[in-house]
Amino acid sequence: DSTIGITVEGDVNVSSVSENVSTLSGDDPVTQTYGIYEDSCGDGSTAEVSVGKSVTVQVQSSGEESPQYVEGVSVNSGNRSGETQGTAKVTVGEDVNVTVSSDSADLNAVGVAAHSDGEGSRTEVQVGGTVSVQTNNGSSSGVSADASYGGAVDVTIGNGVTLSVEEEGIHSAVYADAQDEGSQVDLTVTGNVTLGGTKKPVNDDYDENADPSAAGEPDYSVEDAALRAIVGDGGVINISINEGNIIGSIEMIPAAENEGNPGSAEAGFTGTGVVIEDEPDSVTGTVTVRVEDRDGEDESTGEFFDNGNISGGDTGLQVILNENSETTVNVVTSGTISGGYTPVMVNENVTEDNLKLTAWEIVPTETADGEKHVVQTLEKTDGGMDIAVSTETTRKIEESIRYIIKVEANENAVRTTCGTTEYEGYNVAREGDRVTLKINASDGYYIEGAYNGLGERIPLQYANGEYYIDVPRGGGVYLSARIGKHGEEVKEEKTVMKEQPQVTVIFDLNGGKLKNQTGVIEKKIRNLNEFYFAEAEKEGAVFKCWRDKNTGEEFRAGTKYKVRGAVSFMAIWE
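-> structure tokens emitted (574 positions)
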């Protein structure tokens, strides 16, 4: 029944420097550094800390043998046995920043760590600004929230989570774990959830002469994810990302720059946007992830599509369930799901019954034979290599996906759709469904045409007095109409398009030059405008392509590109 409260009106700053930390006399010294450490473990205890401004932790250490734990905010309620009920709360008015430079591979760096044990125990964390973590070693998380023995954790971040990493390790910008019956994690982030940085590829151990019988099971393990959710038997996880995107993309260092690993892979990108899995022995659990921009009441502004996206260097969304799982996974994103390798990856235990997926668009992967895939699974080749394939089950999952149907607003006409249903507050339809657009122009106005597409607008089909579209694989339906006024000349399409804002397009020359410019070129280009990629030059190298740093997509010189938001390209050389 103890109570404690601490209020700091300004900042909390921690700076720690240690040298030559090593194992002594057979014991492993553990270095622990915290900006705020709060533990309400007594039965009926209450602890509350409030910081008016920011929490900043900077750690620099040397000594490879020492495990280190660095946390900007560490909060716990209850105890590890779940036998007590405590309440813990931390409020930070502005930002939480953690920066670590360490020799230790045993490093664990976390921006906000929130834990609760025991039925009736509750941990709350509110950060008004950004949670930012930068680390050069070990494993790390921007936000880690976990509950067990029926505990509850509630975390709110006001302006995004950013995790920037180097080297190997397991990294999650946001990590959530509800371990057992009655445990619940609620996590809300306004703004982007971003995992970025660099990483050295490992050697390719694939042996083409390997015994096919020794191939084993496909490897679904995922090291790096912008958002990772793990649910135990009876646990509940609710995650909402508002007015932001989930981006998981780490740049792989090329072999030439990776001196300690000459056999490493070529430059590329790794990382997953969202990973959802259940515990090995879990039978039932619930995970809900919503990535949305719900402020777009006036859809004609186009702001709906600026946020709500899930992307990964490898995979946009990955779902991994155990053999006996009845866990329910519900993912709703108002934007796009995309991945450099495949947009959605599942294991063999995921079906259309336990995965409920809703999105505006899922960018299909196109294989060499021209076939497009939205959902894939891993399969072992005879040589033991994991490859993404489509199966009857993944096709059923694709057919079950609900695609959000958007209709652009116009003050001079009333537009309604037929062929859609309501789900989670959206009008949705499945692949192959016919959606009809009905348009009633206001007095004095008439219909010039109806279209699908954001930016590049393609005329809808017209029959029996109705405009319609059959929802394509991957969705991405955005319906609009051009409305003319009687007595006025018909306007060209370009004059009725909404004026788009300028966005930043970055060209990283990667040691080369373009028209006598070197380094990094930044250009301001109006959104939805088009340009052609130029060919860069580099002494002693041949230009290959421009690579999108986020998605890994490659573009040859001379390729036309339509700008759909800020983007960064890197020159790739041969």
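The chain is about 0% helix and 55% strand.
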